[in-house]
Amino acid sequence: MPAARAAQDAVTFSKVLRRQLRDEEEESAGV
């Protein structure tokens, strides 16, 4: 099911993106 795969990829991508944003916030806060 390509549609299900695309939806899963989108969820995974959003999770990775959110983690990167949180890491950047922690780095800037630590400076």
Quick description:
Helices cover 94% and strands 0% of the residues. With 31 residues, the chain is mainly α.
Tell me what you see in this structure.
The structure is a single chain. The protein has 1 helix and no strands. It has one helix at residues 2-30. The N and C termini lie far apart (46 Å). Helices cover 94% and strands 0% of the residues. It is mostly helical and 31 residues long.
Radius of gyration: 14 Å
Mean pLDDT: 91
Distance between the termini: 46 Å
User: Roughly what percent helix?
Assistant: over 70%
Approximate shape: rod-shaped
> What structural class results from the helix and strand content?
mainly alpha
Sheet with most strands: none
Order of helices and strands: H
Work out the number of β strands: 0
- Helix count, DSSP H or I runs of 4 or more residues: 1
What fraction of the residues are assigned to beta strands by DSSP? Answer: under 5%
Low-confidence stretches: none
